[in-house]
Amino acid sequence: MSGPGPHTLRVVGPGRAGSALSTALASVGWSVAEPVHHGDDPSGAAAAVDLLVIATPDAAIASVARAVAPVEGTVVAHLAGSLGLDVLAPHPRRAALHPLVSLPDAEVGARRLRAGAWFAVAGDPPESLALMESLVVELGGRSFTVADADRAVYHAAAAIASNHLVALLGQVERVAAGAGVPLEAYLDLVRVTLDNVAEMGPAAALTGPVARGDWVTVERHRAALPADELVAYDAMVAAARRLVDDVGGAGRTETDETGTDGRGR
Asked: In what order do the strands lie in the sheet with 51-54?
């Protein structure tokens, strides 16, 4: 890596994530070199930069890394949540930087990367990890390390938190439409529920019929739902029951909870 002065970045594959990262780092003083686009020769991409980020689709990272000539002082990193550092062979300095935030486009993504985002980082040798951690600090974010062996599990949790939540809200939209109620009517309930989880944790934040052992209501729901919604509903009932059972709280009574603001039902 270079001495004192601003760090220099180059991105291979300047799509949404790569462009968002370039824009965010440029805004905090990094020097951003010309990116390598699809179809360009990437062999010299690691030259004259401190950090080369391979921001291609996950399946292409290993082949792109092999096509880049190693440079002793350059850290080569990827943005994949589920991949380890082995895909960056043969580079001597390897790192991973996965923003735990949705990046819908470069402009919105750059703002989110500077809004206190969490990042999963890894690096080998230690100097590579140190660069990732300092980068996160410069962006005003927070980081945690994830070992190679744990990255698939970590990324599965990220998919559940984001992608599965969106799919679940798609079910809310479909089911609510059957009663003539718009999705927007439920979004404040979603937001206050997330606030409850942040304040108390998932187990304490769980309310509703499963939490209080009201299986009559659960069966009333099942009888009212279209057949093609039952698989998802039953899966989430099972997940809620597991949460209750894990903390020994099964069988709370109907009178344990009141209200309809997201804190009581």
From this structure: 31-32, 8-12, 51-54, 75-78, 94-99, 118-124, 142-145
Ramachandran angles phi, psi of 147, nearest 5°: -70, 155
Positive or negative, the Cα torsion across 156, 157, 163, 164?
positive
> What gap in Å lies between CA 61 and CA 193, rounded to an integer?
38
When pLDDT is cut at 50, 70 and 90, the band that residue 238 belongs to is very high
Are 65 and 89 in contact, with CB atoms under 8 Å apart?
yes
- CA end-to-end span of the chain: 55
pLDDT at position 5: 63
Contact 57, 18 (CB under 8 A): no
Residue 5's Cβ-side half-sphere holds a number of Cα atoms within 13 Å equal to: 8
Partners of residue 54 on adjacent β-strands:
12, 78
Residues 37, 38, 40, 42, CA torsion sign = positive
**Residue 260 neighbours by CB distance under 10 Å:** 9
pLDDT at 2 over 70: no
Helices (H), ranges, the chain: 16-26, 61-67, 106-113, 126-138, 151-159, 165-177, 184-200, 202-205, 215-224, 230-246
Whole-structure pTM value: 0.86
For 111, the 3-state DSSP assignment is: helix
